[in-house]
Amino acid sequence: MTDNPPGSDTGIICSIDGISKTYDGGFKALETVSLDIKQGEILALLGPNGAGKTTLISIICGIVNASGGSVRVGGYDVVEDYRQSRGLIGLVPQEVNLEPFETVNNTVSFSRGLFGKPKDPGYIENVLRRLSLWDKRKDQIVTLSGGMKRRVLIAKALSHEPRVLFLDEPTAGVDVELRKDMWDIVRALKADGVTIILTTHYIEEAEAIADRVGIIDKGKLLLVEEKSELMQRLGTKQIRIELDDKLDVIPDALSSYGLEIDTSGDALIYTYDPAGGRTGITSLFGDLKAAGLVLRDVRTHQSSLEEIFVDLIKGRT
Ligand SMILES: Nc1ncnc2c1ncn2[C@@H]1O[C@H](COP(=O)(O)OP(=O)(O)OP(=O)(O)O)[C@@H](O)[C@H]1O
């Protein structure tokens, strides 16, 4: 890695300019995607299956050739200056692709060597400790749990001291606890100054850790926005309040909340903006009680990515 790569003073670590990709069979996976990734940010690329997220990451990492456009990482062109740009990038793939009988330490150290970096046991120790893998360093990969294997993938991607880390679906199919662990790891890496780009299907994931969110659908980048702005604009939450008795009309005392009666008649739906300063939930519950309504159950519902897409597409036509 060069100390001062070209472009390092712009605050933009990765510049994607008009990237398109048509696969051999003629399928258009990306259409003129342009995006600047800021140094030190966590950017979440949200999109459904087949949206083109992996294709975009693969182009940035030099694994797939773009059909048009260019990408620079740390000022280096990912095609013309492949070695320099790739040296700045760590990639955590979707699939666990580790050598089962190798030890954790060898797996991570060997990966560093592949990038032509001199041995640095102190750095590797630091990475393994960060990821709670130090005690497992002599264990074979095959003996590790799925969660530990994911940690090894991250350690491997960090082995050559990248400045940008790409995580492709880091929490697809993992349990809630591991998902939270992953988020903690990502936050800690950001605190260390690493720029992080992750792809995800989960709006909650973007909401939990991203600074900015990009939405990709059918090969198009529909928008890139600060998470807080996006959530405010699109991410409404609903509370479903189930009642002991059926209701025909909303009591006057509750008219200011914009409540809807569920088609079943025995539940009220309250929609609010979680990013707004006041949700109105506390006063709503007070007023429900005052109106003499008896609650049976309360459930919350977050707008799904799909609903957000529908809203987004409606807004564009
Ligand atoms: N090598 C390939 N040849 C032809 N089509 C491909 C190839 N790789 C991907 N595609 C197609 O390109 C589209 C985008 O795929 P991509 O893997 O980039 O999407 P994704 O957003 O990462 O989806 P997922 O969330 O399922 O991983 C898909 O329709 C996929 O089938």
UniProtKB/TrEMBL annotation:
This is ABC transporter ATP-binding protein. Belongs to the ABC transporter superfamily. It comes from the Bacteria. The keyword Phosphoprotein does not apply. It comes from Hoeflea prorocentri. Residues 14-243 form the ABC transporter domain. InterPro entries: AAA+_ATPase, ABC_transporter-like_ATP-bd, ABC_transporter-like_CS, ABC_transporter_ATP-binding, P-loop_NTPase. One of its GO terms (molecular function) is ATP hydrolysis activity. Keywords: ATP-binding, Nucleotide-binding, Transport. The keyword Transport applies.
